[in-house]
Every structure is written in C-alpha cells, then in structure tokens.
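Blinded run. Sample ID left blank on purpose so nobody reads anything into the name before looking at the predicted structure. Input follows.
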Amino acid sequence: MVNKVIKPIFTQTTCPLCSSSINITWQPDDIPFFGEVMYTSAHCKCGFGYADTFILTQREPARYTYKVQSSNDMNVRVIRSTSGTIRIPELEINVEPGPASESYISNIEGVLCRIENVLGMVSRWEDEPPETTQRAHEMLKLLEMVKKGEMEVTLIIEDPLGNSAIVSDKAYKEILPPEVAEDLKTGVIILEKDELLNNFQN
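Blinded prediction complete.
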C-alpha cells in the first residue's frame, strides 16, 4: 500500500523582528514506530528564521534516557524540538533551549556532532580563559571516543511539552512530574496549530 502524500499548507504571520508579513510552512510526516509529526518553518528577508517539530498525538512532559554503548547506537533516531533539553551527565553537558533554538530530527551521532561544533568554536576563542578552552579540547576528544564506541555515556532528553523523543526500544521513557517540567526551559515562540490540524483532517 502506498502512503498518501500530504502536501504542505501555508499560513501568514508577522515577523517579530521587522513586522513584515512572512509565510509559515506546515508539513506533516509519519515516523515509523513513533507517530505523526508536523514540521513548521518560517523565514524572513530580514534574517529571522524559525523551525520546530510538533508531535501530533497527545503528549505529556517526558524524559527519555538512552545508554550509548557502541558505535551502532549512533544511528538511533532523535527528535529534538525547540523545547527539548539535552543532557549527557558523564560529560556534564547540558544543552538548554534558548531564543535561537531550532528543532531537528537526526540521530545520536548528529546530536554529538552539533555539540562538537559548539565546543570547536569555544576551543578557538582567544578571549576565553585557558582552562575553558582546554576543557573544550578534552570534551571533544571524549565525544570522539563515544562516537567510536570506546566510551559509554547516557543521553537524556527532557521536554516539558512532550515534543522531543529518542525513538528506540532501548530508550527508557518516564513522565515528568509537574514540578520538574515547570523548571525546564522552553522555546520562546509558541504557534497555535489547532486550526491547521483541522485542515489536515478534512
């Protein structure tokens, strides 16, 4: 059976930076063994850009925990929305949502590469204290070991809106208590999508 291809729809909103009219693209997708998601994106000529991923089924605030033990784990799919916090406790890494956060669907290797890109910039900053750049170099070496399966770490994703996930049978999912979810940061842009979902159901 051939899956039905659903075309994206477009809505308009106002750019928060320059007040120009911009289009928002809404593209549905169905991820095997996980469920339906909606990708959204918007770009303005002034340079403003926005992208996020919504899980369309009802979700609760959740934490996903995955033990990375070998190089084979690099292929495990990861969904990180703008409200998702990524943690690697063994390396004291915490990636929290901020004003420039963007969502992405990648794999564990892709998550590690994004962290490496940030650490790579820090390691080259001349105005940083020597201990900071040295620590960045050390963490880059450790992340390379993780990617090769030479070091075990724990990948944790927490999302107070339930829009992030680690898609694997090996991932442990737990519902976050309200007091924990309230302390987590979220993305700064919230878009109403109820009307759009009704359009896709017609």
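Unblinding after everyone has recorded impressions. The helical segments are 108-124, 130-147, 178-183, 194-201.
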